[in-house]
Amino acid sequence: MNMPVGTLAITEALWFSLHAVAAARLRTAMMTLAMAIGVAAVVLLTALGEGARNYVLGEFASLGSNVLTVIPGRSETTGGAPLMLGITPRDLTLDDALSLRRSSLIAAVAPIVVGGAPAAYGARSREVNVIGSTAELRRIRHLELERGRFLPAGDPFAAGAVCVIGSRLRDELFGHARALGEILRIGDRRFRVIGILAPKGQSMGLDMSDVAIIPVAAAQALFDTHSMFRVLVEVRSRDALPAAKRRIEAIIAARHEGENDVTLISLDAILATFDRIFTALTLTVAGIAGISLIVAGILIMNVMLVSVSQRTAEIGLLKALGAPPRIIERLFLVEAGLLSMFGCALGLATGYGGIFALELAFPRFPLTAPLWAALAGIGVALLSGLLFGVLPARRAARLDPVQALAKH
């Protein structure tokens, strides 16, 4: 059966290029490795960028998308973080926080007092982050207990002498001894341990395995303060967030002589900000990695230019046998394409192998290379290989057959 001329030419070009690639193993290894490094860098760096993005978004999303954070002080929109720019004309008090419960839009309110104090049990002591709050903190922050119970519901103004501690703090102060029911000294006060938090990681900027949670009134007495560090508000539904914001501002303004001197931050806004930041970072590192593919393409061009000078007799023989310039060009372009494909395959294998290894080493960090990154890496690799293969191909096609056979 006769094969079409176009198909035959392409098949022969592939066989010719494969033989040429196999004959020059060192040259092939160098160009393949250069392209593979570029593709692997694109896959790995975008996976790290996407992993960081997904990790941060997951940590925030686990706190609930219908939670508002009330910060004392009004922050102007100046491009900076509200946490740093707020000016507080008056404190955000426990009464202010509890007054928010009057709104039907609000499901739970957790006033927060944060400070550092020495914690001691027996002969062991260390500095610890102390969070003062109410029973609602567990619901809003989705805290889980390893054992025991959380702060009891009741009068927020009652300075109960109970505490819930993180698992690391338990290990460092109590060791293998039983912690539940024991007395823990925090600062100059004594608290009975009633619960131990399950490992959770970061929350509110604190390592929850290394904290002590006490009643908010007890924290106010411990740190001699009346002001709340934050007030966490859980809205009944995500759709009610805008109305809840307006209601919270109105309640606080009514209590603060008509002045709106608090800043409200929703997790949606924080999530959107982090999403934009990490997306930009992912695209940036992908672009940086893509530059290495351009460099690899330039390497292919330079090595193939040397190859043209080394294979002049071979090119001259092909021309003497009647091969037109376009066939010569096609042979070298196919060779450049093959080298790029080999590099892509090796790069993808290396990149995804690296992701697998990192997932084994850091199982809590979600590493996933987006499909667009792999496709973009392959596309840029093939494009740069073919683009930079044009010049050597044209130089080979323009060689005079007589001079080429004479190796001039």
Given the structure, what is the number of helices? 13
- Which spans have pLDDT < 50 for at least 5 consecutive residues? 1-8, 77-87
Strands, total number: 12
Radius of gyration: 33 Å
GO cellular component, one term: plasma membrane
Keywords: Cell membrane, Membrane, Transmembrane, Transmembrane helix
Membrane topology: Multi-pass membrane protein
InterPro entries: ABC3_permease_C, MacB_PCD, Macrolide_Exporter_MacB
Structural commentary:
With 408 residues, the protein is an alpha+beta fold. The protein folds into two domains: 5-59 and 273-405, no CATH class; 90-260, no CATH class. It is built from 13 helices and twelve strands. The chain has helices at 5-23, 25-61, 82-85, 94-99, 136-141, 167-174, 216-223, 241-255, 267-310, 312-320, 325-361, 371-397, 401-405; strands spanning 67-72, 106-121, 124-133, 145-148, 162-165, 183-186, 189-197, 202-203, 206-207, 211-215, 230-235, 262-266. The strands form two sheets. The chain has a six-stranded mixed barrel with strand order 2-3-10-5-7-6. Strands 8-9 form a two-stranded antiparallel ribbon. Helix 2 (25-61) crosses helix 11. The chain is elongated. Residues 1-8 and 77-87 have low confidence and may be disordered. It is found in: Cell membrane. Belongs to the ABC-4 integral membrane protein family.
Summed up:
Helices cover 55% and strands 18% of the residues. With 408 residues, the chain is α+β, with helices and mostly antiparallel strands. It has 2 domains: 188 residues, no CATH class; 171 residues, no CATH class.
